[in-house]
Design goal:
alpha+beta; Glutaredoxin; 4-stranded mixed beta sheet
């Protein structure tokens, strides 16, 4: 499942899912110290709407207003063992890179590349080579190294005075991000139950934290909220049923429900979510979990548009900044809730 944005190295002795976090560590920086300087128009961010890890980069790009300087290629929701493919584009080729599959960009740089071909990936357009798929560092660099190109009013997603706390909270958030996969891909009953317990323990701790504050760290949206939202918004649609993470739906957990609603209704978050592609990816690609490939017709997700009431907790989503404008026409998602 490496190409699904779910890189794995091996299953533990007890059938535990283990994520391979070995990514291309090259960075695109303002000073170009890794050979790839920040340059408007030079790079293309390749994502899939289905993937929660890619969703982070899509959100950050939107919030910071980087659309004019960093183009985005969108792979289709399904793939085979070779890699994500651009089957949404005319002729099945990315309109800028001219490739059919993301693996072509990886092999252009590393002819013997054997690791996971994952999204998000940033590709150097002139050479057609993958620069990095290191998603945790990628969003931090969009906030820091690309600062010169942020829109007026862009929020501070990783403020220096809160970085230690954001990093600490993100360790807990990762237990949710990765925990749904550990629960769903467990190969033994014991491994599933252990992952299940750890997942909901982390969700309960985050719920306790969010009961008294609108956002995870400080009084504005930060990198921590960007990490948590993609998992929570996918939870009822896929993780609860497909991954057997079914103690509760997020819609049955009032604090996390309202927090998810709050962010979903915030420009830059909900307008990046494409539920049909999300559901198609998980239910069609993961045939080891869903052998029939049938995509469920539900659930009803209209609750995401209901009032959340979290304004009473205070906080300013964008701090001293402003919301992003509407997404480019070519990047708009359908209104499906």
């Amino acid at each position: 499942m490496a190409q699904a944005g779910v890189p794995v190295d091996d299953q533990g002795m007890a059938g535990e899912f283990k994520r391979d976090m070995n990514y291309i560590a090259t960075r695109i920086t303002a000073d170009g110290r890794d050979g790839y300087p920040v340059e408007p128009g030079r790079y293309r961010l390749v994502v899939a709407r289905a993937c929660p890890w890619a969703n982070r980069a899509v959100i950050v790009r939107r919030l910071l207003g980087l659309e004019p300087v960093l183009s985005m290629g969108i792979a289709g929701p399904t793939h085979d063992e070779r890699s994500w493919q651009f089957d949404l584009d005319p002729g099945g080729r990315d309109t800028v890179l001219g490739i059919e599959r993301l693996r072509e960009a990886f092999l252009a740089r590393f002819p013997d590349y054997e690791k996971g071909i994952t999204v998000p990936t940033i590709v150097d357009i002139p050479s057609g080579q993958a620069v990095t798929n290191d998603f945790p560092q990628m969003t931090l660099d969009l906030s820091g190294e690309w600062r010169e190109h942020h829109r007026p009013g862009a929020p501070e997603l990783y403020p220096e005075d809160l970085r230690a706390e954001i990093d600490q909270v993100n360790d807990l958030v990762f237990k949710v991000n990765n925990g749904v996969y550990k629960t769903g891909f467990a190969q033994t009953q014991e491994a599933h139950e252990k992952a299940f317990a750890e997942l909901f323990e982390a969700m309960d701790l985050l719920s306790e934290r969010l009961a008294g504050q609108r956002f995870l760290v400080g009084d504005t949206i930060t990198e921590a909220d960007v990490h948590l939202f993609p998992t929570l918004v996918r939870f009822d649609a896929v993780y609860h049923g497909h991954f057997k993470a079914n103690r509760h739906k997020v819609s049955e957990m009032p604090v996390l429900r309202d927090y998810t609603r709050d962010l979903f209704q915030t420009p830059g978050f909900g307008d990046t979510i494409h539920f049909p592609q999300i559901k198609e990816h998980y239910y069609v690609v993961h045939r080891n979990v869903n052998p029939t490939g049938i995509i469920p017709a539900g659930p009803d997700l209209s609750g995401l548009l209901e009032p959340h009431g979290r304004e009473k907790l205070g906080g300013r989503p964008f701090g001293n900044g402003t919301p992003p404008g509407p997404p480019p026409e070519s990047e708009r998602v359908p209104d499906v809730v």
